[in-house]
Write a structure and sequence with these properties.
single chain; 163 residues; mainly alpha; 2 domains; two-stranded antiparallel ribbon; 6 helices; 60% helix; rod-shaped
Length: 163
């Protein structure tokens, strides 16, 4: 007789579910790691300057197997992402450090670096700074990529092996 029999029983289902849970845990960790790497790369791509302190501070951070973050590790990251309104006064040392990193010096030889810093502070005070989002595009990229990546990872992990 040419019968095909498909056994469905509780023990087989429990065994499959146990294997699946273990596969899902490992696969989820791999997926989150990949998505955090993708997010890091995308955030760096959208920072205002390619070779900046901000760009270099962006990294993927793994808190646990199931919790990953994309972190911009400089204190001014939120100001770049969201911009600033009028009225905030940037501390002297922050402006001076930024000018030093960027190699900004006065064009006028009679102007001191402190005077130029004051002019920049005044401009920021009266006009604020525009938003230059870099994390939001990274989040959108992750949201767009996650479903297909998850499908690929989980299909592979949960592939039913036949005898």
């Amino acid at each position: 007789m040419n019968e095909i029999i498909l056994d469905l029983n509780t023990r087989a289902l429990i065994n499959y579910l146990e294997r699946s849970v273990n596969a899902i845990d490992g696969t989820t960790a791999k997926l989150l790691r990949r998505l955090s790497q993708e997010g890091t790369r995308e955030a760096k791509r959208h920072t205002p300057k390619a070779e900046s302190t901000l760009t270099n501070s962006i990294r993927a951070k793994q808190q646990s197997a199931s919790f990953h973050q994309v972190v911009a590790g400089v204190h001014y990251a939120r100001y770049v992402e969201e911009g600033t309104g009028r009225g905030g006064w940037v501390p002297d040392q922050t402006i001076l450090d930024w000018m030093d990193v960027k190699g900004i010096t006065p064009d006028d030889e009679d102007m001191s670096i402190e005077q130029l810093a004051y002019l920049i502070q005044t401009k920021i005070f009266y006009q604020g700074t525009p938003a230059q989002p870099f994390m939001r595009p990274a989040l959108e990229h992750i949201k767009a990529k996650a479903p297909n990546l998850a499908l690929t990872y989980f299909k592979s992990a949960l592939e039913v092996k036949t005898k």
